[in-house]
Amino acid sequence: SRQAYDPFTSYGLSKLANALTATELQRRFQAHAGDPQAWGQDSAVAVHPGLVETHLATNFFKNQLSLPLQGVVEAVPASAKLISGLVDAVGPLVMKSPANSARVVAFAALAPAQQVAGRYIADSRVAAASPAVSSPRLAKELWEVAEQLTGEVTHESLRAASQPSRS
Questions:
Q1: What is the rounded distance in angstroms from the CA atom of residue 82 to the CA atom of residue 62?
Q2: N or C: at which end does the chain have fewer Cβ atoms within 10 angstroms?
Q3: 77 burial class (0-12, 13-18, 19+ CB within 10 angstroms)?
Q4: For the segment 59-80, what is each residue's pLDDT rounded down to a tens digit?
Q5: Residues 62/83, Cβ–Cβ less than 8 Å
Q6: How many CA atoms does the CB half-sphere of 80 hold within 13 Å?
């Protein structure tokens, strides 16, 4: 996004980062399984609640549809109402209600850890994530960049988990 901002690309990369973070966190949890002093009893899950019908989403799509038609919108002000009406009509057909998207999150939180730990959840089931999500190297690299950017370093009880196995 430093050269040019594209909302779809940035959104997709943020979702990839979420899934990679869950992958790395779950790997660290597993490295400490059985150690009650560490986080070995927890699990990490990446959840995609779906495209949710909110003001943020509908306004985003209205703006995105208006951009390529900017000349038409300026020349024919009524066309903006047409675009808005189209998004309002189609939105509920392709987007989930906030309550339905919350069900996906609840499923991830309440499902047995052995079913969801370290996995990607969409539509209340384990789903295939991008192949990049299964890259331990990429997940660890993202974790390290996040530590550098935030100035927050992993607690020492989890540092051993971040070291590659010598066996």
A1: 10
A2: C
A3: exposed
A4: 777 666 666 666 655 666 677 6
A5: yes
A6: 10
